[in-house]
Amino acid sequence: MHVSLWTRVFSAILLLAASAAVPQAAQARDIVGFSGYGAGTIVVRTNERALYYVLGNGKAIRYPVGVGRAGKQWSGTAVISGKYLRPAWTPPAEVKHDRPDLPNVIPGGSGRNPMGAAALTLSAGEYAIHGTNNPGSIGGFVSYGCIRMYNADVLDLYGRVGFGTPVIVTR
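RE: above sequence
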């Protein structure tokens, strides 16, 4: 009887440890009514600090995001030009100017790497839709122009989009 009890306790501990190591489900807040864009389009509404992935039939997934701070925001169209898991980060010249203490490259997976779990690079320049190592920044005006997502959310979006996915950023 004691072996059976210990076996059950040990199994429960292993199960808890394993579930803690598995990435959590996406934190997408909800599916909302959304029209005016084709299915598969990403729409970022900077003023709402929200990213919408258009599902079609008048619906979209709305994700909370962090966006460019004052003077760093942009609007326009782009397409997804790259998809990277655990990307290394090379600070752009503007960031390096403001933060000369940063190394030239921060390896993927490092706690100092602001790209988080994944990055979707955009054809419009040095911008990306990416995860974050600072989840408290989501919902704020915080970046140099990139769109920040919770890591679970960017992984969810990563699985939904491909190269050439249209991205529309509005203010």
